[in-house]
């Protein structure tokens, strides 16, 4: 069924009550099916705010808004019980090519954003190393595949940043001779403080701290 066929007379519903709703893009015909246990009016307000700020938790809906700026909001039914079941029912009535929900069953989180915590990043990267697909991992964690994609991108960016910082640090250390660094190590072994060593060698305390931690520096 095409989404437009689900649109009913909106005067039959109460926007101030909970229920199931549909966000429809009249340009490409795609829809997002949502649910809320609070008033639909309030939930729609949250959607509009997140979309305007560009941080909506559904990337498909955010992209459609960014591209067309045209979205229409419709109530499908007022209800308070079995929200997941009712949302899944309405989503199942729509041809999959038109559905923007992350979950194939159309189930959303009722306005509570589902995110991956940073402490979970290593386990996700490990799964990617095991050749698990974004879709497989997304299903395991109950999020959109785009969320997994973002975790992957952020991890790569952080790795690149660390590499860049290491290169800069090594270049900065290159201005110190091997003899100077050996002198620092000697003073450290004699129990001199970082400030004392800095005064004696003219090397910054931050670099002295790195040497003290036995970091390896590339000398050029």
Give an overview in words.
The chain is mainly α. The chain folds into three domains: 112 residues, 3-Layer(aba) Sandwich (GIY-YIG endonuclease), CATH 3.40.1440.10; 58 residues, no CATH class; 39 residues, no CATH class. Helix content is 49%, strand content 9%. It has nine helices and three strands. A three-stranded antiparallel β-sheet has the order 2-1-3. Helix 5 crosses helix 6 and helix 8 crosses helix 9. The chain is elongated, with a radius of gyration of 28 Å. The chain starts with 18 loop residues before the first strand and ends in an 8-residue tail after the last helix. The C terminus is likely disordered.
Overview features:
220 residues, single chain, GIY-YIG endonuclease, 49% helix, elongated, 9 helices, three-stranded antiparallel β-sheet, mainly alpha, disordered C terminus
- Helix % is 40-55%
Q: What is the number of helices?
A: 9
Please provide the count of β strands: 3
Can you tell me the CATH superfamily of the largest domain? GIY-YIG endonuclease
Instruction: Estimate the mean pLDDT confidence.
Output: 82
Structural class: mainly alpha
H/E element order:
EEHHEHHHHHHH
Unreliable spans are 216-220
Biggest beta-sheet profile: 3 strands, antiparallel
Q: Reading side by side through the largest sheet, how are the strands ordered?
A: 2-1-3
Q: Mind telling me which CATH architecture of the largest domain this is?
A: 3-Layer(aba) Sandwich
**Could you say which overall geometry the principal axes of the C-alpha atoms support?**
elongated
Give the number of domains: 3
What is the CATH topology of the largest domain? GIY-YIG endonuclease
CATH class of the largest domain: Alpha Beta
Span of the ends, CA to CA: 68 Å
Q: Strand percentage, roughly?
A: 5-15%
Q: Using the CA coordinates, give the radius of gyration.
A: 28 Å
